[in-house]
Amino acid sequence: MTLTYHLQIVNLLAALLLLISFAMLSQRRIAGLITLFAWQGAALTASTALVAWSTGQHHLYYSAALTLVLKVIGMPWFFFRIVKKLDMDRDVEPMINIPTTMLIGIVLVIFSFNLALPISELSGTVMRSTLGIALACVLLAFLMMITRSKAIPQVIGFLAIENSLFFAATSATYGMPLVVELGVALDVMVGVFVMGIFFFQIRETFDSLDLKHMEKLKEK
Amino acid sequence: MEIYWLLGIPLTGGIFLALWGCRKNAPEINALFSFLTLIAAALLTARIVEGGPMMVGAGWFFIDSFNVFLVALTALVAFTTSLFSRPYMRIEQEHGRLNAQRLRLYHSSYQIFIAAMLLALTTNNMGILWVAMEAATLATVLLVSLYRTPASLEAAWKYFILCGVGIALALFGTILLYFAAEKVLGSGGTALQWTQLNGVKAQLEPTVLSLAFVFLLVGYGTKVGLAPLHSWLPDAHAEGPTPVSAVLSGLLLNVALYAVMRSKVLVDGALGNNMAGNLMMGFGLLSVVLAAFLIKRQTDVKRMFAYSSIEHMGLITFAFGMGGAVANFAALLHMTMHSLTKSAIFFAVGHATQKAGTQLMADIRGLIQTNPTLGWGLMLGTVAILGVPPFGVFASEFLIITTAMHEHPWATPFLLLALGVAFASIFGKVQPMVFGETELPKLSYQPALTPVFLHLGLVLMLGLFIPPYLADWYRQAAQLLGG
């Protein structure tokens, strides 16, 4: 009885994740994007903690705590600081064709539900139906990376993929072994740090974080 | 025990050089740590040759003849590259392209990169393998952008984003693998251990495993440089410092392919058909052909040899895809030959570009006049990589092509055509660089050419005669891969 109740909430959070992914796809302002990313992390934390509580998988608590510290507090703070330092609070990205991007996004969602169907039938966890959503979030984040031309949105897209993958791991298998999750978290943290250094280097060299300046290396 | 030394030495080296890397003798310290790593690798190899496969540290590490040969190769090339980078980086500093701070970053990242690769090779856990691969990428991103030129920043950014996305796909593949394993092995830390998985591979769910393999192949394949996911590779090789190009080409690509092969063994066991092999053959063949035709259009020498790496990695992937004892043997042999030869070429190319002050082939002329050993090193390396007998590359390519003729005759014309095109274009471009007239100045430091001739000597020796114990070793490794 309680399990179905929990299941409803987890499903709700999954839907929220998907919604946030769509919102990220259409968000033009960098500050807004960072906030959305923090919310996505929060939804992920909540769902992981809930699954941990309802199924008694204690190691998931660590995973939830890690997400909370890194992806809800640490990284958004770091990004906000960079945005402030590089003085691009008000940067608005000129994006055309938001409706088309949305339509492609919907097609991706349908595709990922179909792809996940045979796997979720095999899964024994309580939240197997959410695997499709996790896969959809991965693909939407990909789409976001492709459609953006600025450095920070691309990195946020990359981190959104990571978020969705963690969600996939939780929904399909109650999370990866703890050591692996710790390792992945460490990598992501170092990655974001490296990116931080990188932003400054790019900015110093090109005087902008627009990646349009970085299209010189092509096959002639 | 050796395994802890093997991983501990480069890691300590990385930390040490991060703290004290500004010293004048940092290049020597770097070489020293690499040498100690090589000794640890040699001891480990001796242990495995004597006692067979072993598990260390409660199942966290697993060493068999397949990965120990890559460990030995990695440690060897890492050491010789550190020798080469000693004068190379000093000259770069003198030319004003680098300062002491950046050299500190370089030396520290170099050691951590080696540690990450060795961890990827020796770990028994598919999850840790992923973590180590990602760590190896992160360690090299800032190395690619070391010169801080616009082009190098662009290359590093591309490298980070493409490999990051690729490796995210591999993570999804790993999750799927764990998902399938959990059904059989129960949840917990052991379900991702390769040895455990290998024991129960026949019971793993085939649909999940085939999907997992697609993700793992595309993910790690991005790092192998398989077409059409290769576009980061030529940029990163051309814009980064040459020692980095040498280790990327000679080592990182091998390690990524190693990850693919570990997954393939599991998938083959679960599926009982050659789905994984067919996919690898497809990607491999595409890479060989595409790279061969792109080589033709290159004007930058490092870019050209980067494409040649894509071609050779494609060839190795194709051979592993064919499977069977002979093809696996040939692929392993070719991995060794390619690593040694390609890093030797990059060493020679590095000094040649420093001499000419450009990477454009049209402006590098007559190396043999000003510096005969350098000229001969580049020429012999090129001849070796193009598969001219008696060098070892010929032996492995010959084996791969004859096996292909036997088992997949349709692929042979493509392979021969690609090898022919690559031969004509590379030879035609390197020949005037080595011979021809010149007025290039001398280098301020004595170039490090011993590593070049050491590598080429090994390749020549293995082409003429493979010692029986070495052949046995390769055969064992080929068997492990399902030969």
From TrEMBL, chain A:
Chain segments annotated as transmembrane: 6-25, 32-54, 60-80, 101-119, 125-143, 155-176, 182-202
Subcellular location as annotated: Cell membrane
InterPro entries: HyfE-like (IPR038730)
Superkingdom, taxonomy of origin: Bacteria
Keywords annotated in UniProt: Cell membrane, Lyase, Membrane, Transmembrane, Transmembrane helix
Membrane topology, from the record: Multi-pass membrane protein
Major site of localization recorded for this protein: membrane
GO molecular function list: lyase activity
GO cellular component annotations of the record: plasma membrane
Protein name, entry field: Formate hydrogenlyase
From TrEMBL, chain B:
Residues passing through the membrane, by range: 6-22, 29-49, 61-84, 105-122, 128-147, 159-181, 208-229, 241-260, 275-295, 315-337, 376-398, 410-428, 448-471
InterPro entries, A to Z: ComplexI-like_HydComp, NADH_UbQ_OxRdtase, ND/Mrp_TM
GO molecular function, one term: NADH dehydrogenase (ubiquinone) activity
Keywords: Cell membrane, Membrane, Oxidoreductase, Transmembrane, Transmembrane helix
NCBIfam families named in the record: PRK06458.1-3 (NF005043), PRK06458.1-5 (NF005045)
GO cellular component, one term: plasma membrane
Predominant cellular place of this UniProt entry's protein: membrane
Pfam families: Proton_antipo_M
Biological classification of the source: Bacteria, Pseudomonadati, Pseudomonadota, Betaproteobacteria, Nitrosomonadales
Domain annotation NADH:quinone oxidoreductase/Mrp antiporter transmembrane: ranges: 124-415
Protein name in the entry: Hydrogenase 4 subunit F
